[in-house]
Amino acid sequence: MQTLTLGDYLLIIASLIGIVLFIYSSLKIFNIMSLLPKESKTRSYWLYALVLVVLFGLGYLFSIIAVLVNQKTFLDSITPFIYLFGSFFVLIVVLVSFRTYKAILESAE
Q1: Which of 11, 16, 68, 99 could join 42 via S-S bond, C-beta 3.0 to 4.6 A?
Q2: For the CA atoms of 48, 52, 57, 58, what is the dihedral angle to 10 degrees?
Q3: Per residue in 33-79, pLDDT tens?
Q4: What's the angle, vertex CA 53, arms to CA 107 and CA 4, rounded to 5?
């Protein structure tokens, strides 16, 4: 087994924190989805956000494994995809937040 550097330990710790935050976020998304009608288009957008949260969580897990088995070139090769999916994630969260707030305001009137 390889000797881990301080940077490796920091990456592993940051990834573990990220996984915990994604689990918490997933639970909150389930809470939001439970408040919306099953046939709601807004609910389906929250489902898309949930899928991306799970994918990012798996990405963190794969990055930990890559560090532990000394496959850091794997991390270099997936970085562009992380940025790409990150931009989709931000777009979906902004759109679904707008739709959700709009629905709340319309129902309050």
Answers
A1: 99
A2: 110
A3: 888 888 888 888 899 999 999 999 998 998 899 999 988 888 888 88
A4: 155
Termini Cα distance of the chain: 63
CA 27 to chain CA centroid, Å, is 12
Find, among 2, 103, 85, 98, the residue nearest to 48 by Cα. Answer: 85
Neighbours of 35 (CB within 10 A): 11
The Cα–Cα gap between 93 and 23 comes to 16
The count of residues in the chain is 109
- Alpha helices, DSSP H only, in the chain? 6-35, 41-68, 72-108
Q: How far is CA 101 from the centre of its chain?
A: 21
b/e sequence 86-98, b meaning 16+ C-beta within 10 Å: eeebeebbeebee
Give φ, ψ of 2 to 5 degrees.
-75, 160
**In one letter, which amino acid is 55?**
L
